[in-house]
DNA sequence: ACAAAATATACGACCGGTCGTTTATTTTGT
DNA sequence: ACAAAATAAACGACCGGTCGTATATTTTGT
């Protein structure tokens, strides 16, 4: 039966949702297991601790984003820069539907426990690195195509993308507006990066 | 006697320190009052609640930064752009001494409780706005002097500064390195902004 | 001026509740 | 019947916040 594995996945899904919207310390195991109708005792058969669970949630969270971005980059007939624009446009629409809630699990947990939980620190570093590497490759490819400027390294621009997006999400969160996210696109993807 | 007021200030000092390094939900009232040798009961004569205390801590936190930046902008004989560079260079040195710990209280609390605590949301918005306005004015002035490019609005560049700095601090936190902060200076202040 | 009464402040034990985790029991599969 | 997995109950610790009391200060009466 897949109910065991699916319960594990449900826990992670709910964990991602709650951890993103409430943070690590404000989210209790009870809240998670109650939401997905799993006995509290079972939680500790799936995960060794709350900290391990959070680290796994981080990986569980980033996967869909990596796949979505990969899809945009591969299955699109557009150049990589346009693919990046489309990807971020899709993200903004999604976040807008969500009522500007939560932001990014990676950013939130980086700020809250990024330097206090070794396990989560590792998971965060790995997730950010994978996510960044994907955008780095896209920028590098776009540079070769001539759609992105060549006089700045793709590495630096990838960092700009990642860091600015995180900052823009924080601004969105307190201002309850997607305006910072649109400005992010206009300033970087539609201006600074263009060849 | 100023012992009453100084105790209040000590509580806020300690609050800033603990809230920045551990976050809101991981920091208890007991931890704060024990650290500054103030009875727990007294805490609630100074502050109405933990939430109010955090909101006051936010204002208490940002003030020195605003004053330091103002000093750099006013008492410096350098142009505003150079003043900004000097200011951020000083910040980086300070953060390096601290062992990359904590990051920025504003950024951390924006991520953790920026959309769940109304009181803190207000305090965060106000603090960020004041801080941003200062840099906006500096950029505007630098534009008039011709040291900063005129074909991009100072508003957008100020947002870039604020947002990118927050993102860079998150990266610093998980990578335990000031490299993202230096890259921030090189990319924006020493490149994108220059006329 | 001074003792007594009234008021304000300081304080820590304590509240109900929740935390993350462990353990003992029940249920399940064979 | 029995080992293994699932689960409910219980654990001590700690949470934010309160409240009765002890101490200090001020006001009053003479």
From TrEMBL, chains A, B:
Record field: transmembrane: none
Family annotation (Pfam families): TetR_C_13 (PF16925), TetR_N (PF00440)
Keyword DNA-binding recorded: yes
DNA-binding among keywords: yes
Organism: Methylomonas lenta
DNA-binding region: 28-47
Keywords, in A-Z order: DNA-binding, Transcription, Transcription regulation
Name of protein: TetR family transcriptional regulator
Domain HTH tetR-type stretches: 5-65
Signal peptide feature range: none
A GO MF term: DNA binding
Record InterPro entries: Homeodomain-like_sf, HTH_TetR, Tet_transcr_reg_TetR-rel_C_sf, TetR_C
């Amino acid at each position: 039966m897949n109910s065991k594995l699916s319960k594990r996945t449900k826990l992670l899904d709910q964990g991602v949702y709650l951890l993103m919207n409430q943070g690590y310390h404000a989210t209790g195991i009870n809240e998670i297991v109650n939401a997905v109708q799993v006995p509290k005792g079972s939680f500790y058969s799936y995960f060794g601790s709350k900290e391990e669970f959070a680290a796994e949630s981080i990986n569980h969270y980033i996967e869909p984003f990596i796949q979505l971005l990969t899809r945009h980059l591969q299955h699109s007939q557009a150049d990589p820069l346009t693919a990046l624009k489309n990807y971020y446009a899709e993200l903004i629409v999604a976040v807008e539907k969500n009522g500007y809630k939560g932001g990014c699990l990676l950013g939130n947990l980086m700020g809250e426990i990024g330097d206090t939980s070794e396990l989560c620190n590792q998971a965060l570093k790995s997730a950010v690195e994978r996510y960044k590497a994907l955008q780095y490759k896209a920028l590098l490819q776009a540079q070769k195509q001539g759609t992105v400027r060549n006089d700045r390294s793709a590495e630096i621009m990838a960092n700009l993308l990642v860091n600015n997006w995180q900052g823009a999400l924080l601004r969105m969160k307190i201002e309850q507006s997607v305006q910072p996210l649109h400005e992010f696109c206009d300033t970087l993807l539609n201006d600074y990066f263009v060849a």
